[in-house]
Amino acid sequence: MIVFRYDKTFEGLLTAVFDAYNRNTFPVKLLSSDEIELLFVDACHTVITDPKKSGRVWKGLEKRMMPVTRNMLTYVWLSEISGCDETVFRYIRKVFDSKTSIEMNFADDDVLQVRNIAQKVNREKLRVIEFVRFQKTADGIFFAPIAPEHNVLPLTLEHFTDRFADQQWIIYDTKRDYGYFYNLKETTEITLDSDTLILEGKVNEELLDPNEQLFQRMWKSYFRSMAIKERINPKLHRQHLPVRFWKYLTEKQ
Amino acid sequence: MKEEALAKLQILAESAKYDVSCASSGTTRKSKAGGIGSTAGWGICHSFTEDGRCVSLLKIMLTNYCIYDCAYCINRRSNDIRRATFSVDELVELTIEFYRRNYIEGLFLSSGVINNPDYTMERMVRVIKELRTTHRFNGYIHMKSIPGCSQQLVHEAGLYADRLSVNIEIPTEKNLKLLAPEKNHESVFKPMQFIQQGMIENAEERKKSRYVQRFVPAGQSTQMIVGATDESDKQILKTSDFLYNQPGMKRVYYSGFIPVNSYDSRLPALKQPPLVRENRLYQADWLLRFYEFKVDEIVDDKHPDLDLEIDPKLSWALRHPEFFPVDINKAEYRDLLRVPGIGVKSAKLIVVSRRYTRLNAQDLKKIGIVMKKAQYFITCNELSGLNTVSDTSPEYVRSLLVPKKKGQKQPDLHQMSLIFPE
Question: Are B7 and B84 in contact (CB under 8 A)?
Fold first, then answer.
């Protein structure tokens, strides 16, 4: 059995594809650099991430795939589901080895898997777009903490930057401890050092804009007024509005 | 913004919530420099109320004072409820501030009728004009057009709103007269025609120059109340079908009747709103819009009402066993759509995947077909179709697929029952 070790980055994964074709050995498993060795390993190759090699693989895929499906591969990567790197690896091999396009063959397990995972990630992306709640701070920045299941924040930037172009905002992933700050010109990645800024999914009350509380109260009371009590349906409610987001939703406090 | 606006918000939201429409779809617009907001063509929901309905737009009334006395409406003149009116500035600020916090996609503005239709409409137009021009708000705006208002006002509203709508509420004129004697169908259909006309003219003008401002880019919608009067599903769906054939009509909503004025003897006494019927009507509506069904196939004189136990597609399939089994590997897309358990997405997946390989039952399951239903209506590689509806009987398949009620013992179908004379 042949295994590859790589640094668990997307570029690393693409470099692994390059190396595999270059050496003409194909790994059965992909391990991170510090994962313990498996039994029955015949050979282990350590991949050294190289942007040139990964770039060539990515370019090669561009020639052979539709932009939509190539995009799906990054979605699958961002899912952070264990084993998704191996799915992507196998998928890419199938793309390179087949004379015709395999992208639409959903009877193939990997093709279907890639589609299903990409769909899951896309759904999570839409949820973040829906459920992010900005709180205005005293210095005029709109701040939103959130904890998505998959690492989808980068996928939502285009939407938020376009929509809220005339206000400063920060969207922060509390689970992965990084976020993005938009300063009216550009969006940059940030990491917060302070741990008193966010308390229980909310921005620390002392730091809020004086009017913020009133708008939050208005939104809450609006939300409650909208429910028609003759139609209450808690199951449907939870299905559309997953409980894991409640912590970050103003109206569910 | 002051505290008193909070009380108004509560009152006017309570008054607006019975309108079911809340879509923010139909227009895609990027943000403009110096403005705020964008719209997404697929629509974005921002929250869901405890009854499971989506909250996409700030659905609010300008005022809940009303000169009309419609039996089905919570805001009727004779009801003793709290009344309030928003000022234009209050409403504009509220919309912008909610939007900036990502609570909403935009505004859904409706209103009770004060003084006369034109007076009311003019004030509503002022709100959305202010939003669009002064504040350069670029989000979604849906506005109700007031029945009986002038064509000129509809035209002005259409330049600022993404969607305009007029509610039919009661599908037949006879019953409308009974519950809302001050209204008639003409007052509803007139503004609808204004909107339609405006859209057609706008399309013509935009052919000449693309700089012409768009008019109601997301089209119009309407709503019918279900269960307040004695219309059959056939009458309701025929009306919907007629409306969908008009250019620019995007959605017909069905609102299960909620007895808000239970004292009025013209209204039926209901224990609970007809939610199942409402759901079946939506399913039928989907069949019309996405599944290439004709309205006569869903309801006819023999079956004027939809089956509440099973969905309308399954119901059609059981009435037409001769259409089945459908061969998954050969049938046309149109025919695949008619199989219970196959939706639009899975039908498309089947069509693209079967070019590579013959699909078998396991593939279908993985693709996401509901085999529990579909198995009785298809043949594929190894399913030779022993179990299909054409080999057994519709009654038998139906008995297998009707959801079992709790606590009720189902007769064993494989066991013949022996009847002993007493």
Answer: yes
